[in-house]
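Re: the request from the purification team.
They wanted to know what the chain is likely to look like in 3D before they choose a buffer screen. I agreed to run a prediction and write the result into the notebook, where they can find it.
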Amino acid sequence: MKFYEIFKKIKIDKLKLFKEKNNIFEKKLTKEYSIEIKDYYKIFPIDKNKIKYDEFVLLTIPKTGTHLLCKCLELITGRYGLGWGVLPKDYNPYESYKDDIPHIKTKALYNDYITNFEVLTFPTLHVLNKNYYISNFYQKKIITLRDPRDQIISLVFHKMRENGDNLNQIDKDKIKNKIKEVIRLTSQYKMDQMYKELLILKERGYCLIKFEDLIGPMGGGYLTKQKEAISKIANYINYPLNEKQINFISEFLHGANHPNFRVGRINQWKDYFDQEINELLYEYLGNVVINNGYEESYSQ
């Protein structure tokens, strides 16, 4: 199938999806975030999704706060975060057609696709995934950073959930063994590569949001830092918020009725890391922890 035909098919399928689901953002508000639609529109203008924001893309490393940051952006913009990781596995236009179709044409086709949803969605991507090339089409990028040790804990519980384990009845020794297993497989998960890419994005001046700042007091953080982070995101996409809007987002930001949300708390690693795990971590990812400012040097 030719490139444009593939693009056209996905475009039609997505349009059908949004038509069937009516306003997918409003459904997510009530079902996943437990927010009444009328309460949301009391704070935010009902025609806010007609406002022209600066276009942006959300770029994250898996298990570093993708859903938290996506929720914040959804509440700010009134748009639905469209994850490009859910496209068909055989669909990778840049890799498949980059030798046959000029890059500018690829971008033109992508923009043609996105135009249909610009008041409904914004793109979300994982760093270095197969659709990562899409991020090149956006001048503004929002990226997130989280303590790699907490990221590992989140990944461990995610893997256990996928395996059907009851997360409320897991032996702590089993969790520790799984932590060691995940640390040894960090090269397979491309963690080191992803964090190197994140540092490059940070140096280029894109909007960096730390999970620890955005999570707020319900996740072990600080309210002042959370509100500052919310305001920073809104200002970056050229849609500053007033105090009532910031307070509303802050009140509802923590938590979601979603399988990927577990506890949303910082410093979870301290409940599970012992000296052996700590030494193993620094063998495989010590440079990542230190380079991102979570430790000044190796400490036992």
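For the purification team: The chain has one domain: 3-291.
Please add any questions underneath this entry.
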